[in-house]
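Please predict the structure of the following assembly.
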Amino acid sequence: MTPLETRSQDVETTRKIAGVVAGLTTAGDVILLDGDLGAGKTTFTQGFAKQLGVTEPVTSPTFTLVRRYPTSAGFDLYHADLYRLDQLNEVADLGLNELLDEGAAAVIEWGEKGAPALGPDHLSIQLRMAGEDAGERLLTFSSPGGSWAGRWNELEKRLP
Ligand code: ADP
Ligand code: MG
């Protein structure tokens, strides 16, 4: 699948893009977010959670590493932040794979750190500061593994 790219000019657009992704997400999906501090990973997660009907405020789970939110989409959402993760085996300790097997979906900030422990099939989103405007972000979507192949055209169509 060819990587997809889209631009966001502000927080609201990033949340809207996240809502598009959430609308195509099903139980068992793993979404890895990568990009520098302040790139918008938590902002993205907030838009993602909102689309799934999460009513609790979503904040960065840096100190707990992972938080669980019930949604109105028929599956729970796990939000993890691996920034403080030192060793790959800590990802295994989080038990995310087991949680996903139980039919949840996961959004993981600094996901590349955990990718080797999470399996090859996921949606990976890179967020980058782009352009001269402080609010501009470039989002690049790629997906190793086949789980998004059937949704790729639809994702492309729906992205702003
Ligand atoms: P991260 O989780 O990647 O460290 P956050 O989402 O916590 O990033 O923070 C992103 C910061 O950048 C926020 O202060 C937000 O207001 C700001 N920002 C400005 N423009 C954007 C944009 N287009 N998308 C997301 N965040 C933006
Ligand atoms: Mg964050």
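The longest strand covers residues 123-129. The beta strands are 4-8, 30-34, 66-69, 77-81, 105-109, 123-129, 137-142.
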